[in-house]
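If you are new to this repository, start here. Below is one unmodified record pulled from the training split, so you can see the exact layout before writing a loader.
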Amino acid sequence: MKKQFLLMLISLFWASFAFGQLQGVITVTSGDPLYPTLSAAIDSLNHQGVGDGGVTIMVAPGNPQTAPAGGYAITASGDPSKPIIIQGNGNMVTAFSPQTAGAINDAIFKIIGGDWITISGFVMMENPANTITDAGTNDMTEFGVALFYANSDDGPQNCSIIGNTIILGGPYQNTFGIYANSRHTATSMTSGANITSLDGAFNNLQILNNTISNVNMGVVLVGSATGDYMARNIVVNGNNITYGYNGTISSYYSVSGSVNGILLNSIVNVTVNNNKLTSDNTVISGTLRGIYHYVSGSGAALPTSFAIVNNFNNNDIYLKRNTVNASIYGIHLDNYNDSVTNYVIADTIRGLGSAATYTSTVYGIYHQGTAKNQYFKKNIFRINTNTSGSVYVINGGNTIKSNGIQMLDSNRVDTLYKTVAGGTVYFYYSYYSSSDSTVKKYFTNNIIDNVTLTGATTFYGYYDSDGGASSAAKKYYNNNVIKNLTGGTSAVYGFYVRYGKVIDIHNNIIQQLTNGGNINCIYAGNSYTLEMKIYNNKIQNISTTSGIINGIYSAASATGAIVNIYNDTITGLNSTGSVYGIQIYDGITTNVYNNLLYDLNSSGTTGTVYGIYTYGGTTNNIYNNFISELYAPS
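And here is the target side for that same chain:
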């Protein structure tokens, strides 16, 4: 009889285990005998698993929660037919207090190896009783939500973090809104332990419509150092992130020691769209970035077996640092291969200044990595900076892979104020790169407007010295506008285009430039340029109080080079020095025809005015040009 009773108990226990999986809607409320707390519901989920159709664990409105020490650890997994949804209904979850002294892996929620999990609708708060911020003895909470692998072949896949509010304990330096890392375990943040298969990655992660504040970094995602195991198909969309304190974070494995709104290391096929990133006068140390996508770590290299497409679109980024001297990047993209196409479209980048005058370099967008295809379209820049260093609105200085494309189309500088003298301002910059003649570079429909510089600050609209031989890239500049620039005392260049097997500059407008130094509106060609055309451009109302003006300066002189300059209109050039409507500095065969040049003026006692001036060139054919109204002192 005893044996039969024992067998009955075992059978009942087994039935409970086998058939007690969570499914349907489970409501967490303080009066529920089974699930009075979220901890109870998650413990049941982890022990019993999820049943057919999946489970929604819903915290009833008006039921605030306190997370357990270290955070809720979710280890159960769903699948496409059995998803796990944990819905907060706007309830606050307060972090445990005090967290383990000196630990740097505390969270409010942790997903450890779980799949098909959605965490949505919570207000996650640091506990105000946690106040010790020294990393070695801290009692703080590091993560709002953290995702870790369970083992090196079992990562958290197809998870979603949606519509939460995360408020942590900044200025504590180790505060991250949402964090995932494939290079360390769930318990040891600073020791490398890379995953060993793609199953260990956090593929298909979605981070959507969260509001994150009081953090040093908003979203930090680190994929495997092994290309074929790097996390892929990641979406970070619609988040509002206020962040940034200092770059002295603990040594989290393969996490950059800088301050970033969204950091993605070794992640492929990413979509980072529609986010608002704000860091306003709170960063006291370290480089400050809005979005940082890169590949880094011992032996890290992108996969080559499939095409990689990354999107960084419609983000609104405002950055202003505190008094420390360190660089600022709106968007920084680095370390790619010829499988990569990057789209940077319709982003707005504002600020890029400091609470006090500083000396560091400023970047709106820096595409440092050598991706095959690079598209920058419809981005808007409103920059007000007080650095004495240089400013790069778009730095595309990388060697584009063979048969690749770099395109800047319909970008706008609405305002660019540099209130401290020094350095150089570039709308577009490319140098120390050597893209070959299979590469095409297009610069179309961009507008540079309302630029004000101070003192000895040089300006280039387009500075393109990409290449190093007559096999350099083909470059096309058309339908661009540069206008309303007030310079300082250093030189101003509209287009400075040197290397390029083919250089084509047409249908551009350069107008209303005022400066206290030399002005070169179009300055193009060198000894490696084989073919150059400059036509249908309008250059008008250009003035300087010191120095010379060149409307068009031509120097294409590779063996067999042919240059055609035609149908350009150049008018209203005013200088105290010499004025050159068109200057042929060097060339092999240069044809200048059907151009209209008038109202060119020098008010200086030694100034000379030239409609068309030939300094050099082997064969110069100049015909059918209309030149009138040249004025200089007698």
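Two things worth knowing about this chain: The chain has a mean pLDDT of 94. The chain is about 5% helix and 45% strand.
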